[in-house]
Amino acid sequence: MTTAYQQEVVQLLKQVIEPTLNNDIVSLGMVRNLRIVDDYIYLRLYIGSHQHQLQPEIQSKLSFLSWCKKTYIQICTIPGVKTTLGISSGKGGVGKSTTAVNIAAALKLQGAKVGLLDADVYGPNIPQMLGLGKADIQVINTPTGDKFLPLEVQGIKVMSVGLLAEANRPLAWRGPVLHKIITQFLQDVEWGELDYLLIDLPPGTGDAQITIIQESPICGVILVTTPQQVAVADVRRNIYMFRQVGVPVLGIIENMSYLICGDCGSRTPIFGSGGGEQLAAELQAPLLGQIPIDPRICSGSDTGNPIAMSEYASPAREVFTQIAISLNSTFMLHDESTQLD
Ligand code: ADP
To answer: Where does the signal sequence lie (predicted)?
Structure first.
């Protein structure tokens, strides 16, 4: 009986459409942890700060169910944050953090208010990539308790587990401690008003990554891979995991796709070619862009100058700009109160 009820509930929830994304809340991964116990419905609704109107709509849809005594909706949101996106990779070293920083930078240049949460507990290096040295994180007192204040660099708000840990010491958090730190980290940062919060996820499909996905209102992930078969296989596993927990995969970015010859401009695919395209076709997730190997990406990361903010045109800067434009056309609301400055 519960399964039949469950299906009935899902069918009704699929009739609730998120107007900007023009899709139903189930397909968008906004409804999770749906349970029916003794004819009571419990669900978690993962939304942005501008989507609270979905709650009464759900209540009204589910009120048609004659057997349902009451619906309890737990809202999961990050105060002030409209759109939370995850940047993920199957394995380390493929350029995930570089991509997260550059997408944040490109969105900022498009006029969005952007925050970057470095949740890569195994290698938090976002602060360095934006030129932040060791800084003291301030804690402020708010009506909802003590909160960490993010740092601001190049117009981007930044918070990193690396800023909380001691420098040069590997983070060896495990199990419940890891879980507690991550959830505190997701809930206790005072971001202010943000159009986008990008979360740099730890690589792979381990505990830390699953905790972050389950505890935050991520409404889509971007996956970063290199063209090699082994990296592609890792990303494939990753995509299956996201689909299992109901988080939409927005697309794939292939990094280190080719090397441009400084003399003749020819492109050499030194890590093989076609991996990203093959994966995108197989898993029906768009290929958002192909980024070449470019020493300026590496030096920009080392000196805190993301290539997406460089004044010089480059194929990499172009890819990040295009991704930012396409994210804006997907996620930005078009009424006055939410327009970009
Ligand atoms: P991950 O977050 O996946 O572990 P990083 O973003 O830290 O990977 O990148 C690993 C290293 O590779 C960094 O030194 C970075 O500057 C460099 N890198 C990443 N992408 C490129 C690229 N397209 N061209 C040149 N260097 C790159």
So the answer is: none
